[in-house]
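Section: Multi-chain targets

For targets with more than one molecule, the full set of components is provided together so that the structure can be written out for the assembly as a whole rather than chain by chain. Components appear in the order listed by the source. The example entry contains two components.
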Amino acid sequence: GAGVSQSPSNKVTEKGKDVELRCDPISGHTALYWYRQSLGQGLEFLIYFQGNSAPDKSGLPSDRFSAERTGGSVSTLTIQRTQQEDSAVYLCASSPRQGQNTEAFFGQGTRLTVV
Amino acid sequence: AQSVTQLGSHVSVSEGALVLLRCNYSSSVPPYLFWYVQYPNQGLQLLLKYTSAATLVKGINGFEAEFKKSETSFHLTKPSAHMSDAAEYFCAVNFNKFYFGSGTKLNVKP
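Its structure, encoded as tokens over all components, is:
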């Protein structure tokens, strides 16, 4: 398909385990974002990749969270030693270019449940 | 400081009635504003965006928004609500990354 693809769509994990969430952006899009959506918390920025520039990691809530983007395309968000408060929907988005008038295209999200 | 503020976390209208969802932006942000819609268990979908070409912006599904600099507002409207409009709506600004309002859940009553 032509949209942003995220996998898995649902993930249930035990507290303390590590998880990896994958995002395939739209082909050719240079910008990629991760957001977290928790009940009652709105949309929380996590990290932003733009081309070959250093990523903006200012939204990562702790050092248990990390993300990488390989080859300027696929991105993986890793959460180590998961906690119950990590339960949320993780949304990935991509944009065709940098620019404040440029919209982001969102994937369907990964619903993470930590038990 | 909050970049965009949405007034009203829940709005309920009858089918066929006017929909008005409010968004105010901080005057310190550049005027590139967006409205997104999120249906249950889905990602966000772009409804419309303002990029200074025209103050009245038309989007998908009959929605439109008017940029009013004097009021620092970018309210979303639709003349006649449909049951399928029930969703959560987010106002956003792109200031190197997207800053979203807290969202407004729209309920449409039959």
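The mean pLDDT of chain B is 92.
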